[in-house]
Amino acid sequence: MTFDRIAILGAGAWGTALANALTRAGRAVTLWARVRASAEAIARTRQSPRLPGIALEPQVTVTPDIAEAIAADAMLLAVPAQALRAVATGFGPQLRRPLPVVACAKGIERGTHRFMTEVIAQAVPLATPAILSGPSFATDVARGLPTAVTLATSDEAVATALAAALGSPTFRPYHSLDVRGVEIGGAAKNVLAIAAGIAAGRRLGPSAVAALTTRGFAELFRFGRALGARPETLTGLSGLGDLVLTCSTAQSRNFSLGITLGEGRAPDLAPDGPKLAEGAYTAAALVEMANAHGVEMPIATAVAAVLDRRLSVDEAIDSLLTRPLRAEA
After folding, report:
1. Which of 189, 216, 220, 223 is flagged as catalytic?
2. Mean pLDDT over residues 297-301, rounded?
């Protein structure tokens, strides 16, 4: 089982970063951009406008032709979570052979409450759905700084071989069979990072940010266990590891969105904007799923209420600070 040719669908920051990382790993990489003019500009300048200052490796082929992309041995979907179904549906009927299709977005589809691998399974019948997630900023990966992530799929042979194909000394995918656990960690941490950012933007102090991050992880863990995730996944790279990174720096788009809200400024929530924060679109779906499974997630609920303008930032903070005291466990 070999994966020498990799297609990356989505030429934004994360797609560009992955293209560089996998080229350095020795793979032949095709980077697909939906708009022909965008593909031509990236091919000419060797730079994505979503990742300025980072040069695309010269070996990467850039194309707007989906037929050229699906000729690969494996496909990585580096598009926003809410756009993943449209992209997968676009190429799914053209696929003529089984191959791994890896979601690189961290979110839950609004309306359907589907995780990304479930969307892939519906839209691409011949796919072996997989998920790539973990503590990783696009700029770090693109520059070749050391990064460790988790790659999960239900087929152990595929997971092992694909992780080996994508990996390099500075980009290390650890393989897993716990697909749901990896997806839950990535989706929930984005919402919780918004809460940490709100605390930072409101100048509540580092102690408050640490408390929100810790209690947020307790929510993530409860939700994950209710949906069958393994504890070691939730405490690993794609769970606790990603949460710690996302809640600690304004380099995180979700944390940065929270800072904007905490400072009382109007955020840019355009779904195709350069500063897309996936948590803004996952929050409502996460809370709805938690309620359906009887899982208490007060921090995520407060974030969703702020985003939906049902609560002000101060009202949301008060709702958390006035909750009854209880045992930590």
Report:
1. 189
2. 98
